[in-house]
User: Fold Aste57867_16195 protein from Aphanomyces stellatus.
Amino acid sequence: MQLLAATFLVAATALAQSSDPPSCTPVSVEHDATYCIDGAICSGDGTVPPAGTACPVQGDIASASCDNVYLPSYSIEYGNCVAPTDAICQVLATSGAWGCVWNTTTPSTTTPAPTTPAPTTPAPTTTVAP
Assistant:
């Protein structure tokens, strides 16, 4: 009986310490990797509203298909794909279906340097001797 109780305790502890991610749905970003998303993912026929609008957000780590260092989200630092910005749900030009794409309209976080107009320099004048 004590062996059975000890076995149960070990099994229960292992389940409690499980590091498996919570259930999620894979969603790919156009021309990029696949991410694991909670909620109703962006999908559906582009002629009707999408079934859901959930897409990866900045900092999410890819769950699959990050097999190319030339993907827009590939991070040399992490050796994996990391969402560079929030993706948005829109109709894809390539298929006409709803899908996630990287938001390229995100405002830049850098401030452009101020410009200073250059002073005008008068052109040299020449005088012709009479």
